[in-house]
Amino acid sequence: MGKLSRGMKEFVGLEEITKLDFLVMLFAEILGTFLLVIIGCASCVSWTSTESPNVLHIAFTFGLAVASLAQVLGPISGCHVNPAVSIGLLVSGNCSFLKTVSYVICQCCGAIAGSAVLKQLLPGKQSAGPVGLTALHPEVTAGQGVTVEIIITFLLVLVVHAVTDPKRTDAKGWAPLAIGLTISVAHMAAVPITGSSMNPARSLGPAVVDYKYNNLWIYWVGPLIGGAVAGCVYRMGLKPSKEDDEASYDF
What we know:
Elements: H1 2-12, H2 14-17, H3 21-42, H4 55-77, H5 83-91, H6 97-121, H7 124-127, H8 142-164, H9 175-194, H10 200-210, H11 218-238
Helix pairs in contact: 3-4, 3-6, 4-9, 5-6, 5-8, 5-11, 6-10, 8-9, 8-11, 10-11
C-alpha cells in the first residue's frame, strides 16, 4: 500500500511543483518556446514575391534553434518546448502529471507571445498575412495530415527518450544536436505535406495571432498521439535494462 501511495505521489508530482526552483523551470519553458517560435517562424517569411523560403532553409532553422535552446535550457527544465514531448515523457514515467500540465500551459503562452512579437517586428507587407502558420497541402486530406504528424512526432519523441536516457552513455553530450537533426530531417520530409509542426504550441501561436484555426486540431491530435505512442514504445520495448546497461553500447 505504501509503495502504491508513493508511486501515485510521484505520478501526480505535487511536491515537485511546490518547490521554488519549479518557477525557474516554468520560465525556461516559456522563454524557450517564445524564442523557438520567433526564430523558427521567421524562416517561413517570404521577402520577395518571386521566391519563397525553401524547405532546407526552414528545416535547418527549426532544427538548429531547438539544438541551441536545448544546450542552454536542457539542464534547467529539460527544454521540452513542445507539449508532445512533455506528454511523451509523462507516458514513459519521466515527467509528473502536474509538471506536464504546467509545462504545456507555459509552452502555449510562450508560443503565442513569440508569434505576436514576431508579427510586430516584421514590415507591413510581410506581416499582412499569416506568419509561420502550419497548413496542409491543398491535396492532402485531414487523415493524411494527422498520420504524417503522428509519424514525425513519434520519431522526435523517440529520439528525445533515447538521447536523454541516463542508462545510455553513447549519446552523452550529443543530445541537443541529435534532437535538432531529427527535427531538421522531419521538416525536410513533411514541410510540403503538413508544414511539419510536430509541436502543438508552435502551431497554436500563429493560429491565435492571425485568427486562423482551420485544421488546428490536426496539429494537436497528431503530435500528441505520436508523442504518447513514442513514450509507451520506449518504456515498454526500447528502454535498456540494468543487466545489459554496460554491454549494450560498448563499441
